[in-house]
TrEMBL record:
Keyword NAD: no
Single GO biological process annotation from the record: ectoine biosynthetic process
Cofactor requirements of the protein: pyridoxal 5'-phosphate
Protein name, as recorded: Diaminobutyrate--2-oxoglutarate transaminase
Pathway(s) of this molecule: Amine and polyamine biosynthesis; ectoine biosynthesis; L-ectoine from L-aspartate 4-semialdehyde: step 1/3
Keywords per UniProt: Aminotransferase, Pyridoxal phosphate, Transferase
Keyword Transferase: yes
Family of this protein: Belongs to the class-III pyridoxal-phosphate-dependent aminotransferase family.
EC id: 2.6.1.76
Amino acid sequence: KPTPETQIFHDRESQVASYCTEWPAVFDTARGCYQYSEDGTRYLDFFSGAGALNYGHNHPALRKPLLDYLTGEHVTHSLDTFTVAKRNFLEAFDRIVLGPRGLDYKVQFPGPTGTNSVEAALKIARKCTGREQVVSFTNAFHGMTLGSLAVTGNSMKRAGAGTPLYHASPAPYDDYFDGQTADFLWLEKAWEDSGSGLAVPAAVIVETVQGEGGLRAARMNWLRELHALCRRHEVLLIVDDVQAGCGRTGTFFSFEPAGIQPDIVCLSKSISGYGLPMALTLLRPELDQWDPGEHNGTFRGHNPAFVTATAALETFWTDDRLQRNVADRSEQLQDALNHIVESVDGAALRGRGLLTGVAFDDAEVAGKIQAAAFERGLLVETSGPESEAIKIMPALTITEDELAEGIDLLLAATGAVLK
Ligand code: PMP
């Protein structure tokens, strides 16, 4: 006779084997930082849809305009047609995000999800430069379609897909050598040496924090040096802010503290603010060299997502309350994680802002903590090539008390695993 847990896995067997989520529960309702399974069990969510729910579940300030839009029978699907909802979003994005930061980008809606944003970035970079190669970094994650997979530094995820579609050359990410900066001297030398086989690339694509690849965080100076290297060689710098963007590290764009302006920025996950599919590719204006119809697709005009995206910008980005909360809550979290790091040999604190976690020498520890946390009502994911890090990414709106509750559960789970 199946236990409730095996029954849940049995019920889900019609899904492909790639869907391997470790949580044996059937989730039904959700509010703020909490999700509830159908049997009424409450779970504190330190996962936030892998960064798609930065403002928590079902935030009333987003739900109301969404419901108004739907009950008003406004246009839901629109491809490239201009709509009021799209115009409102573009106006708000310019006024609230780009303008105050002195950023000048053209906005592309590349398709519904993060990988579409990366594909558009890679394609336009190759078109504008007339070059082919793209440099990406060790343990990078940029998506699961063939172009973004070609720049993803994870052999397991690439294993069955065959040869990447074009040549992507990996370079060591900052902190790849545990605490040592990976410099760019060798890369620049190779680019300048026509016999090296490493031609000057079209672009370099980088995450400021490796959300899937183990939570290593690039230092601001390293990002500035990378930016300068790209400028010297007229190589386009693509920042993939799909996971680290929309406030996750404390500023709207994760690269802001470095004071750089990437040529191309990829955004998705929390841009709609409500877990609805939406993606943007931001291009320096002179890179808008698309011909009409050269990059299109059916679901790049999802108007309910424009509505919640606009509401999210108005609600969370017209004053600094959210940013202050991220700063305060990440400090609170780091104190607790330091406690774990100090008590476990070889454990390391990783990440930045509320995209953070602890990596363990023994990769199995992270998975065991994930399971022990679930038993206690806490949802945490793992990250890294061996899933060696526990990954903590609560809603950016989490209160001090809610975070304290989650920290207690996490410490209890860690204690039970490491006893
Ligand atoms: N880039 C980064 C940095 C990501 O974290 C992800 C998703 N984890 C993607 C791209 C791909 O986004 P999506 O899953 O929406 O295609």
